[in-house]
């Protein structure tokens, strides 16, 4: 399911933690922070970005075996 956000909205959204721009991950339904040091992934639910740091997934976390 692809992320369906207005391009104008996407152009003004920034990461609440570091203020960097986002890239869209359609496969995971997330907005990913483009700052490599932050790199949080924020969920998009029902075409609404959930920009709460507590709801974000850390993409830098080591995978669990």
What's the layout of helices and strands?
Elements (H helix, E strand, L loop, with lengths): L6 H6 L9 E4 L4 E4 L6 E6 L2 E2 L7 E2 L7
Antiparallel strand pairs: 1-2, 2-3, 3-4, 3-5
List keywords for this structure.
65 residues, N-terminal domain of TfIIb, five-stranded antiparallel beta sheet, 5 strands, 28% strand
Q: What's the count of strands? A: 5
Using the 3D structure, state the CATH architecture.
Single Sheet
Strand content: 25-35%
Question: What series of H and E elements makes up the topology?
Answer: HEEEEE
Counting H and I runs of at least 4 residues, what is the number of helices? 1
- Summed over residues and divided by their number, the pLDDT gives a mean of 92
Number of structurally distinct domains? 1
Question: Terminal Cα separation, in Å?
Answer: 27 Å
C-alpha Rg (nearest Å): 11 Å
The percent range for helix content is under 10%
What best-fitting shape do the alpha-carbon axes yield?
A: globular
Question: Describe the biggest sheet?
Answer: 5 strands, antiparallel
Structural class: mainly beta
Low-confidence segments, given as residue ranges, are none
Fold-level CATH name: N-terminal domain of TfIIb
CATH class identity:
Mainly Beta
């Amino acid at each position: 399911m692809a992320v369906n956000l207005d391009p104008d909205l996407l152009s003004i959204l920034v990461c609440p933690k570091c203020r960097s721009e986002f890239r869209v991950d359609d496969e995971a339904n997330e907005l990913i922070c483009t700052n490599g040091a932050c790199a949080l992934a924020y969920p998009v639910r029902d075409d609404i970005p959930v920009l709460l740091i507590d709801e974000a997934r850390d993409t830098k976390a080591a995978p669990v075996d």
